[in-house]
Amino acid sequence: KYPCARPYALNNRHKHMPEMQLYSGFQSILFTPSVAGCSRGMLVQIPMPATRLRGASLSAQGVVECWRESYRKTPAVRVVDSLADRLENGYLNPSSLAGTDHLEMTVCGDSRHLLLTALYDNLGKGAAGAAVQNLNLMLGRSPVAGLTL
């Protein structure tokens, strides 16, 4: 494909912007997508001023704990303290979860700036995985039956 990351939608207009605004409750969102030369894998990072959170004193670890509680019954989502074990030569590899159907997410930053980060295989956790989960639900099975967690 292409050897390096290539940013796009630099005018801050993207087809998913309306749904991001709807579900986040924020009208002002900075979205900077990029595509890279990997066949499977996605890294989503959202910078956010910590002051945008209710209870502005909430730390990165506080957000992680909130997510951990929210997703505790969701086996396909793993909330982790850090993605350091996913680093390869100091870099976060978007393909490190290729072949799996789960998502790993964390938050890093300080009292002023947070970076929300999600890492997943866009084929497994994306449309193909969603199709399997929907079929499982229609058949009355566990939503994660047949997925690689």
SSE topology:
Blueprint: E1 6-7, H1 17-24, E2 34-35, E3 42-49, H2 60-70, E4 77-79, E5 87-88, E6 91-92, E7 103-109, E8 113-120, H3 122-138
Parallel strand pairs: 4-7
Antiparallel strand pairs: 1-2, 3-8, 5-6, 7-8
Helical residue percent band: 10-25%
C-alpha Rg (nearest Å): 16 Å
Mean pLDDT: 86
SSE pattern, N- to C-terminal = EHEEHEEEEEH
User: Which class of secondary structure composition applies to the elements?
Assistant: alpha+beta
The largest sheet is: 4 strands, mixed
| Biggest sheet, spatial arrangement of strands | 3-8-7-4
Specify the oligomeric state: single chain
Uncertain spans: none
Terminus-to-terminus distance: 28 Å
Question: Beta-strand level of the residues, as a percent range?
Answer: 15-25%
Report on this structure.
- The protein has 149 residues and is of the alpha+beta class.
- The protein contains 3 helices and 8 strands.
- Strands 3-8-7-4 form a 4-stranded mixed beta sheet. Strands 1-2 form a two-stranded antiparallel ribbon.
- The model has no long low-confidence stretch (mean pLDDT 86).
Quick structural overview:
The chain is α+β, with helices and mostly antiparallel strands.
List keywords for this structure.
149 residues, alpha+beta, 4-stranded mixed β-sheet
